[in-house]
Amino acid sequence: MKDRLKERIRIFTSGRTFFIILFGMLGLVAFASLFAGIKNGARYSQDFQYDAAKALASGTDPYDCSLSGKRSPMIPGLNDYYAYYESIGAPQRMEANQFPSLLYLLLPYTFFEASEARILWLISNLIFTAVIMVLLKLTFLKETEDRFFAIYMLLMIAGLPWRNQIGVGQHTLFSAAFFLLAVYLSVEKERPGPAALALSISYFKYTLTVPMAVYFIYKKKWKELVLSIPLHIAGTAAAAYILHESFFDMIIKPLRVAASLSSSGSIDLGALMGGGILSVIVSVLIMIFLMIFALMCPEGEDNIVISVCILWGLVMTYHRLYDFFILVAVFGYYTVKKERYADIFCLLTVCTVFFVPRIFNESAASMIVTGVVYYAFTLFMTFLAVRTVREHREGGENG
């Protein structure tokens, strides 16, 4: 009886009717999420950092403005910018936590009025979303069946992280799109120069893409890693010259602004440890582990490498849930590896992160549950990563 029931469930869940129902339900939720994200993005996009980029473009040090905690100086266009947010009950102050070479990437948007720039950034994020989907299919999810790939993408759009990413105007979609472009150009097309440029741009959200860039260490793509740095050295030097600051200050000041947010994340180590030096030490140790793992991991294990880098990258430093949309890339590992029940654990983790905090309005209890599930899965994937290296070494010794 039990075996017959299992067989019926298996037949139903692999049949056309099941997928029609699933696509219909996910499609409706994804459409509602898309609508809400666009609506919020057009109104808010408060994390866009238009004010910081505008200050930098005008020759004003955005880091001094951020660290002072006072109302930003009289920069043309910013009075209306701040007045708008005050009028909708969401007052803003400058928080320039990006290095100047990264803020310069936003300069094209500063040629527009704040209201226009906000809409342009929203449109840009929608384009970046489409680019991410295409490039995931060409890279880490290329072996995934089309129907499952479509489900993963609908999950991403339907989830809280992507919707909030669009709504608050964050930069992770931008960075993830260029990171995946760098992977595609480097690994699939063997074009190190363009790949290095894309990788350099992806550092805009360096707290995530630097851990993800460990993947390039795994692939021994040293040229891309080295060539991704000079653009930022030049941008930092240019800002130091224009603002009459030292090169050193242009590195330290953004980090000081970022440090003030270190304990304000969702489920990251800084939030769990209350910030401070201990969380920094733990993050450094995790980064060292990732690099050693990448150097020791055998060829053909791309998906486990990027999965572990993403999972730890999202909690090593300050991150809010809006950055976690990139978890869909982890599904690529279970496309090529068949771990008993582990794929269900992966799906459970993604769905917990994407939906539980939203259903329960990000209550303390929902965040605890989300954190427990997330860290359990991260440790499980780390165990699989270490096992992969150990089996490879044992196989080599036996051979």
Description:
There is one protein chain. The protein is an all-alpha fold. Helices cover 72% and strands 0% of the residues. It is built from 22 helices and no strands. It is globular. The protein starts with a helix and ends with a helix. 44% of the residues are buried. The model has no long low-confidence stretch (mean pLDDT 92).
Number of strands: 0
Averaging pLDDT over every residue, what do you get?
Answer: 92
Overall 3D form: globular
CA-to-CA gap between the ends?
Answer: 47 Å
What's the helix count? Answer: 22
Percent in helix: over 70%
Encode the helix/strand succession as letters. Answer: HHHHHHHHHHHHHHHHHHHHHH
Biggest sheet descriptor: none
Percent of residues in beta strands? under 5%
Alpha-beta content class? mainly alpha
Rounded to an integer in angstroms, the radius of gyration calculated over CA atoms is 22 Å
User: Which spans have pLDDT < 50 for at least 5 consecutive residues?
Assistant: none
Keywords summarizing the entry:
399 residues, globular
How do the strands and helices of this protein lay out in sequence?
Blueprint: H1 2-13, H2 16-43, H3 50-57, H4 62-68, H5 78-87, H6 100-103, H7 114-138, H8 146-158, H9 160-168, H10 172-188, H11 192-202, H12 206-212, H13 214-218, H14 222-227, H15 230-243, H16 249-259, H17 269-273, H18 277-296, H19 302-316, H20 331-336, H21 342-359, H22 364-398
